[in-house]
Amino acid sequence: MTTATTSGRQPGPDARVRLRRLHYRHGSDVWTVGCPETGQAVDLPGIAVTVLRALTDGATLAEAAARAEQEHGVRPDVPDFVATLVTLDFVVQVATAGDLDPDEHQEADAGSSLPWLRPSWARLLFHPVALTGAAAFVLAAFVRLALLHRFRLGYQGYFSVHSAGLSTAWNTAVLVAGVVLHEFCHLAAARAAQVPARLSLGTRLVMVTPQTSAPLLWLADRRTRLRFHLAGAGCDLVLAAGSATVLAQTRPGTLPAELAGSALLMQLSAIAGQFLFCVRTDGYLVVQELLRCRNLYGDALEHARHLAARSRLLCRLDRRVAGYAGRPDPVLALPAHERRPVRLYTVFLLGGAVALIAAALGYALPIAVTLLARGAGEVASGQPAQVVDGLAMLVFEGGAELLLLALLVRGWRRGRAERRRERAAAARFSRPVP
């Protein structure tokens, strides 16, 4: 008897497998299979689901292959597929001979952030009365502010006080508070649907992005998925409306008015950032859902590499690009309704990525260097007020840049392995045994 702790050796045809509790959802052309225990979800063809259900019924690997061949006309390499399932952590136990031991495995859903948040509490945020009240508040706040002509969109609005360091500290506090509430609403939307979700930090090209990961969201219905994607933007609008209300209620030029104006500008910038479709923002996820695409970003990236493979220079620079040389366009393997959106999104992906990187190098980086140099100079001046201002600048601006660098390094190390694991089952299962 062996447990599923390694994937280096494939089980024999007479082996039996105990799988974790799996959930299935049939899409237009593939099945989404998710495991509540681990929080993992993958897309698989129908023949793979046939094998999974046969293994769940207690069939040996050879019997599962025979059932798949009978139903689909192709005999798959089930031992290889089981080895992939082990890497996905879908397997509890593999019996190399005889029957499986009595199932003593205690199943539990994948751990979620904020376990104290009950689904019944989370559903209150999305009750029709709450949503209607929030929409009315947002509309009234912005209509009143527009009538007063009190809001400035210029960059000067970011500086609520004369001290650049203290302005940076205030803006950072507003940004962090907004991000926390934004992700909390995503988490609440998942909790209301009883979908496991976890909070984490990640990157999008050159930006630090807190994110709420809910791999099993694909098992939910479309309405639930859209609510999850839109929950954060709804929170941002309510926060911006709150700042607009304070700005409208205070006297122009006073500190409360300046702080509220700066906060409003930060919150509107966060909302605008959700429309950066070249990275996987909430806006991108909504568009992907409306277009009924499975993985718009990943498919467009593969299409871009296929196009880049026509260049010998790019093939030499990137092995992933070289792997697409001589292969058919991966878009042709997609369902017909996804092909045009993927080709169009490839243009947004490439153009937007170039624009964001150029803006980071030509705009954001010089500003960051200038602010850090100014902060260091103020600390070195010895003047108490300037020392405080310089320290605030170094702590908040320098801390943000160090966090971005650390996350980029971590993402560079882990990104390819994670993407490869998500597609491993379908890729391995595509090779039938002669």
Automatic annotation (TrEMBL):
Source taxon at top rank = Bacteria
Q: Which UniProt keyword terms apply here? A: Membrane, Transmembrane, Transmembrane helix
Name the residues that span the membrane: 124-147, 347-371, 391-412
Q: Return the protein name.
A: Peptide zinc metalloprotease protein
